Amino acid sequence: MSPTRRASSVEQAEVACPKSSPEKWHAAISPYRSIKRLQNEYGNIVNFERCYELSDYDSKSGTFAPDGQALEGRAATLRKFLRDREEEEIVVVSHGQFLHYVSRDVDDDGKQINGDWENTEYRSYIFWPVEHEDALLKETDESVKRRNASGPGKQLGSADDA
After folding, report:
1. d(Cα 154, Cα 148) in Å, to the nearest integer?
2. How many of the other CB atoms lie within 10 Å of CB of 2?
3. Domain residues of the chain, as ranges?
4. Which top-level group of life is the source organism from (predicted)?
5. What DSSP assignment string belongs to 143-162?
6. Are 92 and 113 in contact (CB under 8 A)?
7. Can you tell me the mean pLDDT for 17-34?
């Protein structure tokens, strides 16, 4: 669920039951209710099956903990999932900080190595080497050129500074 929709749901739940326990209003915004609402809104355009499989995304523990090890694990799982799909072109919309883990643009301490992602910026990647067990990504030359970057993963427009 998008943070905007989630925040709206939280506000609505707090207004609906302001003196109730957190458990009661959290139940009002459960992922299952949100998924049902989105299914009603978008119908069969989107496959929501994996949303049910990963409904504990907001647990902030285990796979979904906010630490480097969990982030790298989720990123590796996503890369493998994308690589193993039949589609030849896939669009991923995500938070820039997580995308640094997906593109492996962080050091061993989880610190970002290259430039930030700008709002609405997009980059193109290929899996290289194709069959690598970690499903490694490489930014395409066309993507670097389009962004006027000084190299793969570098800041948008950084070629002007070089």
Report:
1. 9
2. 10
3. 3-59, 63-160
4. Eukaryota
5. HHHHTT-SSTTPPTTGGGT-
6. no
7. 55
* Phi, psi (rounded to 5 degrees) for 139: -65, 135
| Bridge partners, residue 127, by sequence | 137
- Cis preceding-peptide flag for 18 (omega within 30 of 0): no
Instruction: Tell me if 156 sits within 8 A of 115, measured CB to CB.
Output: yes
User: Residue 61: helix, strand or coil by DSSP?
Assistant: coil
Which tokens is 105 given?
């643009």
Q: Nearest CA to 123 among 97, 98, 88, 93?
A: 93
User: Which residues are paired to 138 by β-bridges?
Assistant: 126
pLDDT band at 22 (very low <50, low <70, confident <90, very high): low
> Is residue 71 within 8 Å of 63, Cβ to Cβ?
no
For 49-72, write each residue's pLDDT tens digit.
887 788 787 789 999 999 999 999
Residue ranges of E strands in the chain: 125-127, 137-139
Cis bond upstream, residue 31 (ω within 30): no
What pLDDT was estimated at residue 46?
A: 82
CB 2 within 8 A of CB 58: no
pLDDT digits (tens, 9 = 90+) for 81-137: 999 999 999 999 999 999 999 999 999 888 899 888 898 999 999 999 999 999 999
